[in-house]
């Protein structure tokens, strides 16, 4: 404790403290606990301003030019242009008040992400940012678990994929799927940190305990999207490892075929005893094809979409268009921003995968690509793709943009990425 009090406060320390504060503020929305009793808009504006000031201070101190162009910059520009075009240019008058709200929310989200990425890159803080996120997530997980400990009584792993029998709990989160996504994000942070050679808390048993708690909470959420997404991540990572392994070609081919068969069986019949179409029907996502798309095609606004509004607004049919819930990022983009919006998203997705495939660090490249595939898969069941409002995007988007910035392609930069704990040890 005495050592902590005498720790020298640096720009890096300030940046990581601000990031921890931001995550706690976002957790106040994701959970039912108000960890930071401040207006979230004010928090995001203040956070972005402070982070950009830290970035500018370091650039000026080093006498370096601002805004080096790379793939990350290109993707960032497209994200910003998209929200400006559909949030300020192509506004559907009946939805204008909802569009303004979405524009503000997405703009603040992008400012938070861009400022964090800028500081992470200029100070080489990738490990520090992830460690900070890991510590904050650990606190939230343990707090929610202990204050909602009675929820564990309803845990039944055997019925997680059984739609008619599964019991779901939230452990104080806003929704079952929000809890599931949070736990998976926590696992992803841990996986990347271990691959980076970091040991949070300096003790593996503490980490194993908190990971066990997160897994218990994950199964308690019974979030099929989150659990199947992690399966997709694991299979993709295993497939990439096999492609680079030195085992015999026949053995590798056999294992790859086995993986393919498992995937086909899982998504055609799954662990639920229901077909994929039946799952869509029971989760109310059949309305995407039966109601939402026909409404879109008859609207006369196919090029620029019906207009930006939250999924909740569309789901409760508070617009002039009958759509019901748009719990699919791809259909959500199509309906709200039309064919033009889809072009933006296709280009951004291509840029993301091309950039991740160019990461020089082979170990991280496999993880990042698998994470991106899981991210795209999960977007089929929620409106989360490159979008504000969900906790995991404040982590995933930072990871993706830092990876695309070339930080891991420069050996000297990669080796000098800082961490925030003097107790971290190599794997």
UniProtKB/TrEMBL annotation:
Segment forming the signal sequence: none
GO cellular component, one term: membrane
Keyword tags: Ligase, Membrane, Transmembrane, Transmembrane helix
Stretches that traverse the bilayer: 37-57, 69-91, 103-126, 133-153, 173-193, 205-220, 226-242, 254-276, 330-355, 367-388, 394-411
InterPro entries reported for this sequence: WaaL-like
Membrane recorded as keyword: yes
Molecular functions (GO terms): ligase activity
Name of protein: O-antigen ligase-like membrane protein
């Amino acid at each position: 404790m005495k050592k902590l009090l005498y720790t020298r406060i640096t720009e890096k320390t300030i940046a990581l403290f601000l990031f921890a504060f931001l995550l706690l503020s976002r957790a106040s929305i994701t959970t039912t606990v108000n960890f930071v009793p401040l207006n979230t808009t004010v928090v995001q504006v203040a956070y972005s301003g402070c982070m950009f000031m830290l970035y500018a201070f370091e650039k000026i101190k080093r006498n370096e030019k601002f805004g080096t162009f790379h793939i990350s910059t290109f993707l960032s520009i497209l994200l910003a242009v998209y929200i400006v075009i559909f949030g300020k240019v192509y506004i559907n008058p009946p939805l204008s008040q909802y569009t303004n709200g979405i524009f503000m929310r997405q703009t603040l989200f992008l400012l938070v992400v861009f400022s964090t990425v800028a500081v992470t890159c200029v100070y080489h803080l990738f490990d520090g940012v992830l460690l900070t996120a890991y510590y904050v997530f650990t606190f939230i997980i343990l707090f929610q678990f202990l204050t909602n400990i009675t929820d564990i009584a309803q845990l039944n792993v055997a019925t997680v994929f059984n739609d008619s029998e599964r019991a779901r709990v939230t452990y104080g989160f806003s929704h079952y799927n929000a809890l599931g996504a949070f736990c998976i994000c926590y696992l992803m942070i841990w996986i990347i940190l271990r691959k980076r050679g970091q040991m949070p808390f300096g003790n593996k048993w503490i980490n194993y305990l908190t990971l066990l708690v997160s897994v218990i909470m994950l199964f308690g959420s019974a979030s099929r999207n989150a659990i199947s997404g992690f399966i997709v991540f694991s299979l993709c990572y295993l497939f990439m490892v096999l492609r680079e392994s030195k085992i015999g070609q026949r053995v590798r081919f056999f294992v790859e075929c086995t993986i393919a068969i498992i995937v086909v069986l899982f998504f055609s019949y799954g662990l639920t005893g229901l077909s994929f179409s039946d799952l869509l029907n029971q989760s109310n996502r059949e309305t995407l094809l039966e109601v939402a798309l026909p409404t879109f095609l008859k609207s006369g606004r196919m090029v620029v979409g019906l207009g930006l509004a939250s999924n909740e607004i569309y789901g409760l049919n508070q617009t002039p268009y009958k759509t019901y819930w748009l719990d699919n990022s791809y259909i959500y983009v199509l309906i709200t921003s039309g064919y033009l919006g889809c072009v933006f998203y296709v280009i951004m997705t291509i840029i993301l995968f091309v950039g991740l495939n160019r990461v020089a660090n082979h170990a991280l490249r496999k993880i990042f690509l698998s994470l991106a595939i899981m991210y795209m898969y999960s977007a089929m069941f929620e409106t989360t793709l490159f979008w504000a409002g969900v906790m995991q995007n404040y982590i995933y988007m930072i990871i993706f943009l830092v990876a695309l910035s070339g930080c891991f392609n420069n050996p000297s930069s990669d080796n000098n990425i800082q961490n925030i704990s003097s107790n971290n040890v190599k794997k």
